[in-house]
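To illustrate the input format used throughout this study, we show a single complete record. The first block contains the structure-token representation of the backbone; no residue identities are included at this stage. The design step must infer an amino acid for every position from geometry alone.
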């Protein structure tokens, strides 16, 4: 991986505790995520693994994500995700914090958008209700990105 890429995104921490050490050894940057779901005990374990990894390997962490499509799966509320993100921002004051979600859900969760340091949009043409063909996939990505940029003008976006 390190021969072809500069950065790797991890979607969860449990079971990947050694990944930051390996990434550091190979010269990779990481985007670390805590998988937040419906189980409070698992959420706490994920969160603490994330915080520990960031504190130990801060120099290779590009940013962190607290939750990935958690609202899409209806496993937390917007208010709960705002608490998770705010907690991470407090525990990791020097690391940018966001939450990863698809366009349709970001359109409805403007309070959460105010709490994150930047917006992380998951653009997945294959999973859309009407998937575009290969020739139109880039246009689909551009359209989603532009919709977010219009709604949240001035807020930084990652995709």
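Output of the design step:
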């Amino acid at each position: 991986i390190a021969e072809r890429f500069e950065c790797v995104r991890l979607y969860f921490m449990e079971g990947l505790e050694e990944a930051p050490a390996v990434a550091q050894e190979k010269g990779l940057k990481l985007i670390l995520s805590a998988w937040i779901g419906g189980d409070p005990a698992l959420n706490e374990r994920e969160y603490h693994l994330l915080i520990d990894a960031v504190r130990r390997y801060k120099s290779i962490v590009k940013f962190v994500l607290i939750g990935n499509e958690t609202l899409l799966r209806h496993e937390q509320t917007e208010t709960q995700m705002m608490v998770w993100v705010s907690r991470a921002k407090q525990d990791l004051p020097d690391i940018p914090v966001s939450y990863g979600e698809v366009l349709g859900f970001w359109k409805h969760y403007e309070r959460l958008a105010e709490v994150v340091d930047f917006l992380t949009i998951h653009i997945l043409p294959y999973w859309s209700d009407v998937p575009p063909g290969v020739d139109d996939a880039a246009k689909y990505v551009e359209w989603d990105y532009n919709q977010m940029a219009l709604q949240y003008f001035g807020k930084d976006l990652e995709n």
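Structural context for interpreting the output: The first helix runs from residue 19 to 26. The helical segments are 19-26, 40-56, 78-91, 103-106, 110-115, 137-151.
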